[in-house]
Specification:
mainly alpha
Length: 352
Amino acid sequence: MVKTLWLQIAWHKIFLFITSLFLFIFAITLMKEGARGLASLVENHFAVDNAFNSLGFGWLFAYMVMSGSPVAASALTFFDAGIIDKVGAYTMITGSRLGASFIVLFIGCLYVLRGRNRAESLGIGLLSLSVTGTTYVIALGFGYIFLKSGLLDGVQLHSGALLNSATDLIFDPVARFLLNLLPQWSLFLVGLAIILYSFSLFDRCLPQIALKKSQFGRMSRLIYRPWVMFLLGGLMTLVSMSVSVSLGILVPLSARGFVRRENLIPYIMGANITTFIDTLLAGILLNNPAAFTVVLVSMFSTTVISIIILITLYHPYQRITLNFTNWVTANNLNLVIFMIAIIFIPLILILI
């Protein structure tokens, strides 16, 4: 029996998980070192000198790499290197989360090209963008107050010192070796490529979930409860360590009629909170208490705003959000206007 259990363990997935975690930590080490070399380049070629600039920069950066987590990690390394200040790091992380929602819309576009219904396929991406945009923008002002007040500065993970000592011992010699071979600024790009690959490996180590309509029939009562979906969204993102994964699976489920959009708003809210876990880890690895505080404030403010909406404004918020997504998918003109807006808004923010 023990032998049978041993054989049933997916050892290759465990190996992928360990490898992805190893590469993630190594990538943060390289990005931290390389960010210092990027200081003059960013200051001379990019106008990232206020909160609006960093918000737009993080937003567009997430578009470019098709992921929000590497951009959030980049914001912390920029802050650690002195390229941007605490508020700049905070708004850049918010921008990364706004840009990450575009990936879900992109997946929806692929389903439309495969002949799926446009409203259902694009609806999840639009809903994700709408919920993420409204909650994060409101939380942005709320979090700014907390960031300036310093109320959360004292909340730190003190065990992070031990983790940093271990990682420094392992990865610093490799970073120094590469620094002797490559320009300092290039280590940031190498680290960015490695962190993207580490997230790809992590996605591959997740178990494949086979879902049937009969299973959804048994779960229908739970799906209609906002707080259950809120917790489920948070749990799925916590397990997958990627909001793109936890929200991306909703596109095929919605396109096939397994879930309805009106039930997914709390799920998206929950996913948008626990998506900060990997960024919190990056803050710990940087051994910079202020960087950890920036992420904590982002997570706390988003949680508070989401809970307030669920308790007091859920039904009108649900109605307005769904009406907006229906308007966008009603015809091609509305869709084009929306797509132009989400591209030009971050560009305008960079130019302010």
